[in-house]
Q: What sequence folds into this?
């Protein structure tokens, strides 16, 4: 057999999988967005009705707003905490591996576990409020107040993911040539200046990565609000995927759910492109 | 002689505090699952009267054993197939030249960027058309090939010397036996990375099972535990935590054994570009 033919044969699993589970769904989503369909009765062509409905659907905008609230808290917190611990771990200390391993535990565990655990921590008479009381502070309505619920989920998500970003920042820090700091030291730059003029610019690729991954994560939130709040109170934790899920599997509006998925995907593309456009810098070594 | 430096003492204190923040909640969760209901909101790790009551309730109400086996079956099948197919395609894309190779690789990179929100509903419709809803097929088949897995294998295979492959070809080896007899033994790091990432993602995935499985007997473990946790039984704090402990147990045990590999594999997810 010719080697070229073998190449195609070896790639066949991917080609078949791509056609069935990527090309077909992509094409079919373009059909679905123009139809009304409950899966049982025949599809009905509705033209742009799904998009018109979406444009005036307050729950769609609510989900979008909730996602941005989540990201506005999650991303800065994530970057600050991850950088802080990565800096500490980058000092030549002993037992670094052990600490790194400890911070990483929440990363490997299922979101279901983390959510059930934090649901108890966040309970009105739960561990966190007891801790606050001991410190002489008042109770926080973590999951029961519409203005606190999404920030609470963002804090939990930071706790779950930050270990991964600590490791990524640590790898980034270890890749910065020592000479840069030595030269800066000679020129009389303070530690503070070194951080803002060497460390941060050199870590730009990692920062962009964390931004992009966190953004995708924010738009993919599902099980956390599903278990903790069901999207409440007052839809304050309704996430993009939870809303798609509800439209599809509570109300059997496949056309509208596909339209939501379509628009959310476009928004993800747009947000990620903007982030790269405005944050990404060339790094010169 | 070793003299403690204050900056070191400070660093260690902060690092230790951090470790407590990330690990203590899990220890608390395990302890709480053995506590009587009234004691759960306390910080302590030692139950006054440890009991297995919470676990008894979980085993009573949730088909936890069955869901564990389902998850194991799904995660192992998906991982094995991602390794086999991923390395085959990765080998084809890195070591064999054919016309559409560049195009295929471009398609691969493109599919890695498609948000799943776009394909979720159409893929569910496909499962309905195949009559795969409430079958293992729906849980396994869509996951059998992973673009990211292929990509990692391709990158890794590029670094294997061409001489080895040429020598094997001269000895009359077919491409498949080159892949499985020569490339595979040299590719342990890539296999470990792809294996861990795939197994973990499959074991922890909960959205897809919630979309395609309604039948309790076929539910995966995260799905069964998640549904138990929302099931309006708010009073049963202990059993919910016990279910969470059971769900965390397999992956944490694996993590304890292969800690370094987990961390390094996950960190590699970032090095796509």
A:
């Amino acid at each position: 057999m010719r080697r070229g033919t073998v190449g195609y044969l070896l790639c066949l699993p991917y080609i078949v999988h791509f056609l069935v589970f990527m090309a077909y769904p992509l094409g079919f989503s373009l059909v679905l967005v123009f139809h009304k369909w409950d899966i049982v009765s025949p599809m009905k062509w509705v033209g742009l009705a799904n998009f018109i409905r979406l444009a005036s659907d307050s729950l769609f905008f609510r989900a979008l707003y909730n996602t941005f609230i989540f990201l506005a808290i999650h991303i800065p917190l994530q970057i600050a905490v991850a950088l802080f611990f990565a800096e500490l771990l980058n000092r030549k200390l002993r037992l670094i591996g052990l600490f790194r391993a400890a911070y990483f535990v929440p990363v490997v565990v299922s979101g279901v576990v983390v959510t059930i655990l934090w649901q108890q921590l966040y309970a009105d008479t739960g561990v966190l409020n007891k801790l606050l009381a001991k410190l002489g502070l008042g109770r926080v309505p973590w999951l029961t107040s519409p203005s606190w619920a999404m920030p609470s989920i963002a804090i939990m998500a930071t706790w779950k993911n930050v270990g991964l970003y600590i490791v990524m920042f640590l790898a980034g820090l270890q890749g910065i040539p020592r000479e840069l700091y030595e030269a800066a030291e000679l020129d009389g730059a303070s530690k503070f200046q070194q951080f803002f003029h060497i460390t941060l610019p050199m870590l730009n690729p990692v920062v962009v990565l964390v931004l992009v991954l966190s953004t995708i994560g924010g738009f993919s939130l599902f099980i956390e609000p599903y278990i903790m709040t069901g999207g409440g109170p007052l839809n304050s934790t309704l996430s993009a995927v939870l809303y798609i899920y509800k439209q599809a599997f509570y109300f059997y509006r496949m056309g509208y759910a596909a339209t939501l998925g379509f628009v959310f995907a476009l928004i993800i593309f747009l947000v990620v492109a903007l982030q790269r456009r405005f944050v990404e810098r060339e790094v010169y070594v | 002689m070793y003299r403690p430096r204050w900056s070191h003492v400070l660093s260690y204190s902060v690092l230790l505090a951090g470790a407590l923040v990330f690990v203590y909640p899990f220890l608390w969760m395990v302890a709480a699952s053995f506590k009587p209901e009234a004691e759960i909101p306390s910080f302590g790790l030692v139950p006054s009267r440890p009991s297995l009551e919470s676990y008894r309730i979980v085993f009573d109400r949730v088909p936890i054993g069955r869901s564990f086996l389902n998850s194991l079956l799904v995660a192992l099948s998906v991982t094995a197939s991602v390794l086999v197919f991923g390395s085959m395609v990765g080998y084809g894309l890195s070591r064999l030249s054919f016309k559409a190779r560049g195009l295929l690789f471009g398609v691969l990179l493109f599919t890695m960027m498609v948000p799943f929100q776009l394909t979720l509903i159409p893929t569910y419709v496909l499962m309905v058309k195949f009559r795969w809803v409430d079958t293992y097929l729906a849980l396994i088949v869509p996951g059998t090939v992973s673009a990211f897995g292929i990509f990692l294998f391709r990158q890794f295979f590029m670094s294997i010397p061409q001489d080895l492959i040429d020598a094997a070809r001269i000895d009359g080896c077919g491409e498949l036996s080159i892949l499985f007899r020569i490339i595979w033994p040299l590719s342990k790091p890539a296999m470990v990375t792809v294996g861990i990432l795939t197994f973990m993602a499959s074991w922890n995935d909960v959205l897809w099972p919630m979309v395609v499985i309604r039948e309790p007997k076929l539910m995966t473990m995260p799905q069964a535990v998640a549904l138990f946790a929302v099931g309006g039984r708010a009073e049963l704090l202990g059993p919910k935590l016990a279910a969470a402990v059971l769900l965390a147990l397999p992956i944490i045990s694996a993590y304890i054994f292969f800690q370094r590999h987990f961390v390094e594999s996950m960190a590699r997810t970032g090095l796509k570009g």
In short: The mean pLDDT of chain A is 92. DSSP finds 13 helices and two strands in chain A. Chain A has one domain: 59-279.
